[in-house]
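About this split. The held-out portion is used to measure sequence recovery: a designer receives only the structure tokens and must propose an amino acid at every position. Recovery is the fraction of positions where the proposal matches the reference. Here is one held-out target exactly as it appears in the evaluation file.
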């Protein structure tokens, strides 16, 4: 099993930055990629970004491209989501997810069902 724990959420004003992190533990060697999703009450969980452990290939949702950066520190089994130029519409619970299946070619997993392990989420609130 793999355990994921997010931290680093909080309340910020629009235009500011925040960097949530996700620490993985357990059998992390069985995972090949990590992702961030977000969800607001009454809406479906939304893909934000993904990265694979080995080559640092990344992929982003159009809504965050150019503002968010996903990165990983393999030595710490930790993934980060650097969020800049935050907007009120970025307000959500942010979830970290791990995927066992490796990426091939230019395919990136953007669906929640394509991930095998999930964290408990961290709240990000952006005030206007």
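Reference sequence for scoring:
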């Amino acid at each position: 099993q793999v355990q994921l724990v997010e931290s680093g959420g909080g309340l910020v004003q629009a235009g500011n930055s925040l960097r949530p992190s996700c620490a993985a533990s357990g059998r992390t060697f069985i995972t090949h990629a990590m992702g961030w999703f977000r969800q607001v009450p009454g809406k479906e969980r939304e893909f934000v970004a993904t990265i694979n452990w080995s080559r640092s290939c990344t992929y982003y949702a159009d809504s965050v491209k150019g503002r968010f950066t996903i990165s990983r520190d393999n030595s710490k089994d930790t993934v980060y989501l650097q969020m800049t130029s935050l907007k009120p519409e970025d307000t959500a619970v942010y979830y970290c997810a791990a995927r066992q299946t490796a990426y091939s070619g230019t395919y990136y997993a953007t669906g929640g069902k394509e991930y095998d392990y999930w964290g408990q989420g961290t709240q990000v609130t952006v005030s206007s």
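Annotator remark: The mean pLDDT is 94.
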